[in-house]
Amino acid sequence: MCPIWPLHLIILYILAICPMWVLCQAAPKLLATFLTETVEVHMNQNYYVNVNVTGSDLQIGDELSLRTDNEHIATAEWNSTSTFTSAEVEAGHFQGRFRVDGLFLGRTELVVEGKRGTDTYLVNGTLPITVTRPQRVIDTIFTTSVAVFISLIFINFGCAMHWPTVKGVLKRPIGPIIGLCGQFVFMPLISFGLGFLIFPNSPAMRLGMFFTGVAPGGGASNIWTFILGGNLNLSLAMTTISTLAAFGFMPAWLFSLGQVVFANASIVVPYTRIATFVVGLVVPLAIGLAMQKVTPKIAAFMVRILKGFSTTLLLFIIIFAIVTNLYIFELFTWEIVVAGVCIPWLGYLAGYVGARLLRQSHEDAVAVSMEVGVQNTGIAIFLLRYALPQPEADLTTVVPVAVAIMTPVPNTIIYIIQKIMGCFRNRNDHKKILEDDLKPVSEAPEPGFVATIDVK
């Protein structure tokens, strides 16, 4: 054992901290004062900031540098000299100006560092930086064009709707009840549970999942139901009922489980947006139904082009949405992809299986599956932008955007399989017809054949 134990531990500690103490004494004590408390800048734009640095023990040739905690979000660069002159050393004061470049959504902090020779020291004082997304003209064009095309497609649906069938659905509402249970019981609960499983340390992302789960069914459910050969009349009835029911179910979920997900969220239920969606659904349908009575030929033409128009509209929405929101793919992680897959795909599965277990036809089960699995992600994004500040609002919208991107994947695969199988069936039917045409005709009459001659 050491003869001076335990004093040797104290001696070693002093020897270790002495060089650090000397360095700290040698470094100048500086304070950076920014002429703005915080910086908020849009992506791909910049902002200029003035700064004052005061302190003592300065030397001619000392330099100041700028650094952000996350250079993926923002960077900074001096717009003036950052080297101390003799006048600034004597005054103990430095005035400068620098440019902040916003690169991507998020928050970071700017730090000023001093450099003397090869030594670097920290300057007290930091500047919070927030980078947000600007409102662009292309976003307005996209939203407006989608609204116009959706209105046109629902006029087509009105032309194709068979009102007696819809009344029959409402008199025996087994399908709508299954759809309501799937839409407003299964989907909120599954999105709530998956949120905690996939994002255990991110309340904002969990809120993004939950808001997506409590949203009513989207208009695309009717388009996919028609394309995949489901019961369109049932689908339209369920979408209308689901949207109206959202007035009661959404507040109930948001102010119960929603507060558990993120208690500090200032949740505002978008009644106006839901009401707008109801009007945008009912009015075009009514126009289409009126066209069946007033202009039956035009209505028949609208029905003939419905499938091609629906497919074109879906492709337009998917491609345009991806092009206008390319930046959001930088936020995609495996968690985001899993969240985007689970919400709609589990909804499809639950809707179809539940309908078949309750002895609904395949066509009705397809309609229920689409109604449960397709969410109105627009309402979810609207909710997030009310409940969260920027840039968190835009950052968390990656969840409903991921859901919107993953929603058509299984439907597209099923549609392609249907087309391939249809081609094979047509080919086999054509081959059978050719074989029947090429069979030799027997000259002898078949047994039991009676020839008749018309004698005039």
UniProtKB/TrEMBL annotation:
GO MF annotation terms: symporter activity
Membrane topology: Multi-pass membrane protein
Pfam families the UniProt entry points to: SBF
InterPro entries: BilAc:Na_symport/Acr3, Bilac:Na_transpt, Na+/solute_symporter_sf
Keyword list, A-Z: Membrane, Signal, Symport, Transmembrane, Transmembrane helix, Transport
Subcellular location: Membrane
Transmembrane segments: 141-163, 175-199, 205-227, 234-254, 274-294, 306-328, 334-353, 398-417
Coiled-coil annotated residue ranges, if any: none
Signal peptide: 1-26
Gene Ontology CC terms: membrane
Family statement: Belongs to the bile acid:sodium symporter (BASS) (TC 2.A.28) family.
PANTHER family, alphabetized: P3 PROTEIN-RELATED, SODIUM-BILE ACID COTRANSPORTER
Name assigned to this protein: Solute carrier family 10 member 6
